[in-house]
Amino acid sequence: MEITRVLDAALRKAAAVWITAPGHEPRLVHAHWRDDALWVITGGTEPQVPGLSDQAQVTVTVRSPSTHSHLVDAPATARLTEPDEETAQALRTARLNTEPEWEAVYRLELGA
Predict the structure, then answer these.
(1) Domain holding 82: CATH number?
(2) Structure confidence at residue 2 as a pLDDT band (50, 70, 90)
(3) Where are the alpha helices (DSSP H) in the chain?
(4) Can you give the pTM of this predicted structure?
């Protein structure tokens, strides 16, 4: 599907996305694209995302990595998860200038 290729290309370069849970304002969060899903960490030193919970249906807004203009809004299902060590290290590395501490890790499955 074309939108999947567009999302894959954009999310491989995106460092942040907007997440909107029903009844809440969009929240800008750092995200990491891995294993065909968007990984988001919340709490601790990372922003909270009101309304984000296990099984929540959310909207992910992606901006173009080159022009920063709106690219697409994609539906996603949030899955509260415990990342394996490799994924946890990738989440730490993706934050570049800071050592993140988090309370929760969500795997957002796009189109779900």
Answers:
(1) 2.30.110.10
(2) low
(3) 2-13, 85-94
(4) 0.85
